[in-house]
Design a protein that fits this description.
Helix 1 crosses helix 3 and helix 6 crosses helix 7. Strands 3-2-1-4-5-10-9-6-7-8 form a 10-stranded mixed β-sheet, with helices on both faces. Helix 7 links the parallel strand 7 and strand 8. It is of the alpha/beta class and 286 residues long. Helix content is 42%, strand content 20%. The two termini are 12 Å apart. The chain contains 9 helices and 10 strands.
Length: 286
């Protein structure tokens, strides 16, 4: 896996800027980013008379005012003279244009700040995950800016070797504990003639461990697989609950899973994990 060198931070609310900058400062110590862009989109179609009057008095544009505010926050968090941090203000509310710009820049990683409980934030995140052709980290406002414990869900799809290899790279880079996790789905009502639920679970666990031994060789890792049951809940919920139990800082997943083939699809597990009620950072790999 290549190093994360060119990074973007995108917050859909200006009050998330300082939080994201403090968050990225912790990650910067781990990865030593070379270029860091703080990206904003101006959503207003027309300026209010009061705002226009204020800008006229200052002989300034709205973009300039926002950029000035962002730069002051950068100085507060990183100290003055941090030349590797740049700002980009997208001057129009056209979401597709912003996505095109982000894709054109070929960032190694985009951090997206999410305000917990904000209506529409989950939908916005899903759109970005679908349309961006880069790796993302979804950062809830309650997330920790550390990487000490990582969970990587394994579904044995074609994407699993790459995701596990990437997770291994990040774990080694940050000296974090890494837990490959597989969720067993047991619909016991489909097995009326089998000896019992316990036997089914043991069989599925054995099969998963056998597949994982082959996967370990591809991904060049010696980690051990943890298997859990979903107990009728969505797989994403089972993963998230286990990650909380393990006190994890980061969940690393693929954009798509076993049954997702179309380019614009986002896997149901990824969709669940980036929902607005979660408070662990989620990295979504392309």
């Amino acid at each position: 896996m290549k190093e994360f060198r060119k990074i973007a931070l995108f917050a859909d609310l200006t009050e998330m800027d300082e939080l994201l900058l403090k968050f990225i400062k912790g990650y910067d110590k781990l990865f030593d980013f070379e270029e860091l862009y703080l990206v904003h989109q101006i959503e207003v179609e027309a300026l209010s008379p009061e705002l226009k009057e204020m800008l006229d008095k200052k002989n300034q544009t709205l973009e300039g005012l926002i950029e000035e505010d962002i730069e002051s926050k950068i100085d507060e968090v990183f100290g003055p003279g941090k030349s590797t941090i740049k700002t980009y203000i997208h001057p129009r509310p056209d979401f597709s244009e912003l996505v095109q710009w982000l894709n054109k820049q070929k960032f190694d990683l985009v951090f997206l700040g999410k305000k917990k409980g904000l209506e529409g934030s989950g939908i916005f995140s899903s759109k970005l995950v679908r349309l961006l052709r880069t790796n993302l980290i979804l950062v809830p406002e309650t997330a920790r800016a550390t990487i000490t414990d990582v969970v990587v869900p394994i579904d044995f799809s074609d994407y699993s070797p790459k995701v596990l290899q990437s997770a291994e790279f990040i774990a080694q880079k940050t000296d974090a504990k890494l837990t490959p996790l597989h969720v067993l789905k047991i619909g016991i009502h489909y097995f009326p003639f089998v000896a019992g639920e316990s036997q089914i679970q043991k069989s599925l666990e054995k099969e998963a461990q056998s597949k994982f031994e082959k996967l370990k060789k591809k991904a060049k890792t010696d980690r051990e697989l943890l298997t859990i049951r979903s107990f009728g809940k969505p797989i994403g919920n089972a993963i998230y609950n286990k990650a909380r139990e393990l006190n994890s800082d980061l969940i690393i997943i693929s954009k798509k899973g076993k049954s997702d083939d179309e380019d614009l699809l986002i896997g149901s597990v990824a969709e669940n994990l980036i929902a607005n009620d979660k408070d662990i950072s989620v990295m979504i790999l392309q």
